Amino acid sequence: MTDISLSEPAAAGKTLPPAQARAARLPTQWLGVAPFIIFALMFLILPTLYLILGAFQNADGVFTLENILELAQPTILAAYWISIKVSVASSLLGAFIGLAIAIAIVRGGLPNWTRSATLTFSGVASQFAGVPLAFAFLATLGRLGLVTVLLRAVGFDLYQHGFNVLSFWGLTLTYLYFQIPLMVVIITPAIDGIRKEWGEAAATLGATQWQYWQMVVIPVIWPSFLGTVILLFANAFGAIATAYALTGSSLNIVPIVLYAQIRGDVLHNANLGYAIAFGMIFITGLANVFYIWFRTRSERWLK
Amino acid sequence: MKSGKSWAWVTFILGAAYFFIPLIATMEFSMRMKRGEYSFEAYRVVLGDPRFQESFTFSVVAAVFTIILGVLLVVPTAYWIRLRLPQLRPVVEFVTLLPLVIPAIVIVFGYIRMYGSNSPLPFLSSDIGTSALLVIGYATLALPYMYRAVDTGLRTIDVRTLTEAAQILGAGWTTIISRVILPNVLIAVLSGAFLTFAIVIGEFTMASLLNRPAFGPYLQNIGANRAYEPAALAIIAFVITWGCMSVIQVLSRFAPKSANRPN
């Protein structure tokens, strides 16, 4: 690699070198990224492709759609459904609450410390997931949790009113603990991007506060907002540790079904396991295609 | 603004309540181990548990190796993309974002099927190989964060001029990356490293499915079998995450000073 000359790269960007010269140089140029490409292929792309291909094969390696069709059995469908419900609920609630908090600290006229405190805390809480988060919510809203006990002391029994931390709402409430901060961390720069002058300009042109929001603010933050919602969705959809530690296997979300399948082939069909994995990639992939699309659109505004 | 203030305060206080009540509750719960009095008994029990020490040490070592692997993988690549292959940037960025699309459980499922004991690369046939595979898996999980941190760091320095200056002085590629580029993006690398540490230290899915004696599976096991220790562990985990994030914040304060912005 040492034989690559100095002056070429600067020129390469501006004037197109002849096709031959580029072809001759390409192999050495690519050596620089070869380790990364090989790593990504071996430990990210090929293992995933292996599962995707497996989803379309039977035990003898013959192409089939049987595994995909078998996903339609009630237990698996129910697992996908509850996963999608929890992910949608926690991403939408997390997004709107996070947005409200971000607007409050940027535009609410609060003292400066609230902003830095919120952002610092959000950085921590957005990474505070997994098993410890489940413990924290069991200690808060479990049958012996502080909030449960205190509410019972004032005469309101959460669990008699149908609440259970090991349920759809319990899990959603728990996921919000990392979803809201993630939204705050990502959306705050977008709200900072709304310049004061725009509000003044709108007011000068006679816009009402509502028109200003409707025609300036919302269109500007909409793409990055929607993009983050999708990121939050994928974030919740793939998460397993919190749910597993919180509910054991009493709430069968897809990752927990897949976990049990990997551990002990509970479905008695290895290729059905691949199909479940494929379904997960398909759903998060679909969400992320939207995310990338919206992100590129929102970047235009943030510059 | 005056009229807006009250709703902003309400939002802020409600948010703060949602985020602090679980912490307070967990703290309170973790101190209830001795009947009738608050004590740090649960912490004493947890910290004195040899399995805690072993699994925690295992995860710290795994995190350190993950960081080394991540740096070795990301720094030269991000540098090279900036210097020579900018047309490849979208592809590499897409690849680094893949771990956000592909859930960890799917990635590790692929490993288990691809690198079993009768595959050409039998990672899973030995303990050390499995641990190596775990570190590799962690490196993929950390990839989006590490790459973004390093790439942001590289943006603040003039990669081309530094490279040319080093080359004029006779430096080879290894020297350029390790002694010119790396020190210049050290703060960005360290930010990525601490974020990696925070992600890896309590990771459950991969460690559990690869049967490694890591901190995450230990946490899960304690959660299933004990009452007060999990709360203490949650507080400890929160403090570790907080520590990592604080270091990143402190580092970011130094970042602009250490790097010369081009133009």
TrEMBL record, chain B:
<feature type="transmembrane region" description="Helical">
    <location>
        <begin position="185"/>
        <end position="210"/>
    </location>
</feature>
<comment type="similarity">
    <text>Belongs to the binding-protein-dependent transport system permease family.</text>
</comment>
<dbReference type="InterPro" id="IPR035906">
    <property type="entry name" value="MetI-like_sf"/>
</dbReference>
<dbReference type="InterPro" id="IPR000515">
    <property type="entry name" value="MetI-like"/>
</dbReference>
<protein>
    <submittedName>
        <fullName>ABC transporter permease</fullName>
    </submittedName>
</protein>
<keyword id="KW-0812">Transmembrane</keyword>
<feature type="transmembrane region" description="Helical">
    <location>
        <begin position="128"/>
        <end position="147"/>
    </location>
</feature>
<feature type="transmembrane region" description="Helical">
    <location>
        <begin position="230"/>
        <end position="251"/>
    </location>
</feature>
<feature type="transmembrane region" description="Helical">
    <location>
        <begin position="56"/>
        <end position="79"/>
    </location>
</feature>
<keyword id="KW-1133">Transmembrane helix</keyword>
<keyword id="KW-1003">Cell membrane</keyword>
<dbReference type="Pfam" id="PF00528">
    <property type="entry name" value="BPD_transp_1"/>
</dbReference>
<feature type="transmembrane region" description="Helical">
    <location>
        <begin position="7"/>
        <end position="25"/>
    </location>
</feature>
<feature type="transmembrane region" description="Helical">
    <location>
        <begin position="91"/>
        <end position="116"/>
    </location>
</feature>
<keyword id="KW-0472">Membrane</keyword>
<feature type="domain" description="ABC transmembrane type-1">
    <location>
        <begin position="52"/>
        <end position="251"/>
    </location>
</feature>
<keyword id="KW-0997">Cell inner membrane</keyword>
<keyword id="KW-0813">Transport</keyword>
